[in-house]
Design goal:
The chain is an alpha/beta fold. The chain has 13 helices and 14 strands. Helix 1 runs antiparallel to helix 2, helix 3 runs antiparallel to helix 6 and helix 7 (195-218) crosses helix 9 (251-259).
């Protein structure tokens, strides 16, 4: 998961840096919008792509030692030994879930306000540009105009006195800009911790405004009067975060783009420069084997190459194994009498058939303690092995075992 998040962050950083350096100031608004959306989706999905290649011989890659949660045994009641330390995985999941929920709730509140406003004013079918239709909702109340999906909400004053605002919002609706924002809301909820997705969302919103402004000016609206109207409408209500609003975006940027000379369509060829980035990214995507390990292959594979990690009693975190092991350990009398204690680091191999073998001590404390740790781990019930290409493979794990002479009635 961490590797995937890092790869996603690197891909987004490279893509966004390219866009900012070469394409952000161009007037290819529709193309830039499409590239921002598709590029964001590609950066988020590319790390999950698996390339069918043959897995090199396993002996090229040294076995990766996976450290399972520690277990402990005390001098009094070893069978009640507990797993030590905070559950960082659970804490990380909780933090992620809280951020995800916060973004989803914010988007849901905005969506509810939009639906409430749309239902408040009766809609009529309205044709603009002679070929496209939207549902027009005219409010007698003076309020900021906005569009959402195929609906346009505009105040009576703007409808009668500022046809350019109506055209602006109809362009948003006709080009389905709200769908882009809904997509980015989902992306921001999934990757709320990554500031780049929020920056890309802001850029896409700006592309929407540039597109709508360009459409208005193409209808012969005086640019100077339109820009003054933008300034007057700059102070608006931001309750409708996922809707497209006439007064939502940075006015200075929009006016600058209106005055800018049109970019040559040849500038779109600059996106060809993204191809090396894509090829480089593909070289870092996880590799898979079309055939998987050969039958009878008992090599030890890296944990990172597993499609499915090993499981003990249906658990792939190692905590169930740590709990089982704590019930099997006995504190050696020879060590307890001399108050010898410490942490033993035990390495073991989970074979293709799920059996445990090659148990050894990487870091010992005392001969009797080391022997007890080896004995307990060696008596482990069979695991469900890890899989690559639909075939079981062998992997190596490590687990720290704490032997303590401190007498406590609760946690150790």
């Amino acid at each position: 998961m961490i590797h995937w998040l890092l790869k996603t962050a690197l891909l987004l950083a490279g893509f966004y840096a390219f866009f900012m350096l070469f394409m952000r100031k161009t007037t290819l608004f529709r193309l830039n919008r499409a590239v921002l959306l598709s590029g964001t989706a590609a950066c988020l999905m590319l790390p999950t792509v698996r390339i069918n290649v043959d897995i090199p011989p396993a002996d090229v890659f040294p076995p990766l030692q996976i450290f399972l949660p520690a277990t402990a045994v005390g001098a009094e009641n070893a069978a009640e030994a507990a797993v030590h330390g905070p559950d960082w995985k659970m804490l990380a999941h909780s933090a992620y879930a809280a951020g995800f929920a916060a973004v989803i709730i914010s988007s849901a509140v905005s969506s509810a306000r939009i639906r409430k406003t749309i239902r408040r004013y009766k809609g009529v079918r309205y044709c603009y540009n002679g070929k496209r239709h939207v549902m027009l909702h005219v409010s007698e109340k003076d309020m900021p105009s906005f569009s959402f999906m195929n609906h346009v909400v505009i105040s009576r004053n703007d409808y009668e006195n500022h046809p350019e605002i109506l055209l602006h919002e109809c362009t948003h609706a006709g080009r389905r800009h709200s769908a882009d924002m809904l997509f980015m809301s989902i992306v921001c909820a999934l990757y709320w911790f990554n500031p780049l997705v929020w920056m890309i969302r802001s850029e896409i919103r700006m592309m929407h405004e540039y597109e709508a402004d360009e459409a208005v000016l193409k209808q012969g609206i005086d640019a100077t009067k339109y820009q003054l109207l933008l300034v007057r409408k700059a102070v608006g209500d931001n309750r409708f975060l996922i809707a497209s609003s006439f007064s939502h975006s940075k006015i200075k940027n929009r006016i600058t783009m209106m005055k800018k000379n049109k970019t040559s369509k040849r500038a779109a060829l600059a996106y060809i420069a993204c191809l090396p980035l894509l090829l480089a990214a593909m070289s870092f995507t996880p590799a898979d084997s079309g055939k998987g390990p050969m039958p009878g292959d008992d090599k030890v594979y890296e944990y990172s190459r597993l499609e499915t990690p090993p499981m003990f009693n249906g658990d792939n975190t190692g905590r169930e194994f740590a709990r089982w092991l704590s019930t099997e350990l006995d504190f050696p009398e020879a060590a307890a009498d001399k108050d010898i204690e410490g942490r033993v680091l035990v390495q073991f191999r989970i074979n293709r058939d799920g059996s445990v073998s090659d148990v050894s001590v990487l870091k010992g404390v005392h001969e009797s303690i080391d022997s007890e740790a080896i004995r307990a781990v060696s008596e482990s019930p069979d695991w469900t092995p890890g899989y690559i290409g639909g075939r079981p493979v062998s992997t190596t794990h490590c687990i720290p075992v704490l032997f303590s002479t401190k007498k406590t009635s609760g946690e150790r």
